[in-house]
């Protein structure tokens, strides 16, 4: 439900949203597609699997992204500590604002 709310909020702000995608394989397939993402919101847990492979691909493609997670910062591997993070339960407006900030920082 949060993903749908976020999609509606971002589309209402003028963004073209490519997801949501419920699992790691779907997210990797989306990134391999023809559309280049300007930014991404990535839950650390996608369908019961850690999404770090997706994070690595986003970094490789130089796509700015943020994590949404219920995990404490200390549970996130050190090499991802620089990634913006919205702690669950998240406010949709906060995620929207953070996405806008990280995209415009690039």
Give me the secondary-structure topology.
Layout: H1 2-12, H2 24-32, E1 40-43, E2 45-46, E3 49-50, H3 52-60, E4 65-69, E5 84-87, H4 92-105
CATH architectural group:
3-Layer(aba) Sandwich
The SSE string, one letter per element, is HHEEEHEEH
Rg over CA atoms: 13 Å
Mean pLDDT across all amino acids:
88
Description:
- The chain has 106 residues and is α/β, with parallel strands linked by helices.
- The chain has a single domain, classed as 3-Layer(aba) Sandwich (Rossmann fold).
- The chain has four helices and five strands; from the N terminus they run ααβββαββα.
- It has helices at residues 2-12, 24-32, 52-60, 92-105; strands spanning 40-43, 45-46, 49-50, 65-69, 84-87.
- The strands form two sheets. The chain has a three-stranded parallel beta sheet with strand order 1-4-5, with helices on both faces. The chain has a two-stranded antiparallel ribbon with strand order 2-3.
- A hairpin with a 2-residue loop joins β2 (45-46) and β3 (49-50).
- The chain starts with a helix and ends with a helix.
Keywords:
106 residues; alpha/beta; Rossmann fold; three-stranded parallel β-sheet; two-stranded antiparallel sheet; 4 helices; globular
Short structural summary:
By secondary structure, the chain is of the alpha/beta class. The protein is built from 4 helices and 5 strands, in the order ααβββαββα. α1 packs across α4.
């Amino acid at each position: 439900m949060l993903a749908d709310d976020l999609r509606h909020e971002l589309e209402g702000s003028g963004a073209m949203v490519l997801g949501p995608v419920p699992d790691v394989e779907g997210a990797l397939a989306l990134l391999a597609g023809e559309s280049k993402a300007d930014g991404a919101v990535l839950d650390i847990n996608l369908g019961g699997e850690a999404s770090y492979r997706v994070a690595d691909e986003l970094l490789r493609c130089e796509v700015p992204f943020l994590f949404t997670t219920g995990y404490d910062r200390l549970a996130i591997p050190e090499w991802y500590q620089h990634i913006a993070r919205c702690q669950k339960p998240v406010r949709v407006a906060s995620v929207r604002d953070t996405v806008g900030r990280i995209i415009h920082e690039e």
